Amino acid sequence: MELYIGNKNYSSWSMRPWVLMREYGIPFDEVMVRFDNFDTGSQFKQRVAQVTPTGNVPVLVDDGFAIWDTLAIAEYLAERFAQHPLWPRGTRERARARSVCAEMHAGFSALRSHCPQNIEARLPEAGRRLLAEQGAMRSDLDRLQALWADALRASGGPFLFGAFGIADAYFAPVAGRIRTYALPVGEEAAGYVERVFASRGVTAWVRDALAEHDFLQFEEPYRTSRG
């Protein structure tokens, strides 16, 4: 299998399947397609268009068959590698895990748009200003903490549904935003963020992201240089 991704420092969508597969040792070849820009004629779009009509990452290619949506990739992996607890085993728990992934997939738009992924950066001043100015972002952060608390209390942890799974991979990028922008969360949410970032897959992703040393201005609304 091949997994096409973008820059690890910036690509939150790519992060989800990558950390999930790395967590469980699911073998794949990484194909990193560097962001240049997202115009139709960009090198990035032209390269990714060779494997998916959307021109977006991530894309999982298994023996020539391409899957290009993160939820579809997750479901495919869960079926192909059923020996791993990618989804919870219980019917209701599995339904709840799918529900929270769908909510992440389609929601939290203020938090995601105002706080783009940037693994290497530390932007506490931007975080404070954005929280003061953006009521929708404060609402997203409140909902995020409530969602995590409900799942953790029901499962007993250490991750949302017990073992690290698809739901945790889905929320790993937003956990990273909490770190990057120093967003204030309660003790329960803060502990969960730390456990996510100590997991095998996320640790490996962060290590690679920090090694990129690639500053892309169009991905950087709050910095003018890496320094």
Radius of gyration: 17 Å
- Give the class-level CATH name of the largest domain: Mainly Alpha
Fraction of residues in β-strands:
5-15%
Given as residue ranges, the uncertain stretches (5+ residues, pLDDT < 50) are: none
- Give the CA-based shape: globular
Structural class: alpha+beta
Can you give a write-up of this model?
With 227 residues, the chain is of the alpha+beta class. Helices cover 54% and strands 7% of the residues. It contains 10 helices and 4 strands; from the N terminus they run E-H-E-H-E-E-H-H-H-H-H-H-H-H. Strand 3 (59-62) and strand 4 (65-67) form a beta hairpin. The longest helix has 21 residues, at 135-155. The chain is globular, with a radius of gyration of 17 Å. It starts with a strand and ends in a 15-residue tail after the last helix.
Short description:
The chain has helices spanning 12-23, 43-48, 70-80, 91-106, 109-114, 124-133, 135-155, 166-180, 187-198, 200-212; strands spanning 2-5, 29-32, 59-62, 65-67.
SSE diagram, text form:
Layout: E1 2-5, H1 12-23, E2 29-32, H2 43-48, E3 59-62, E4 65-67, H3 70-80, H4 91-106, H5 109-114, H6 124-133, H7 135-155, H8 166-180, H9 187-198, H10 200-212
Parallel strand pairs: 1-2
Antiparallel strand pairs: 1-3, 3-4
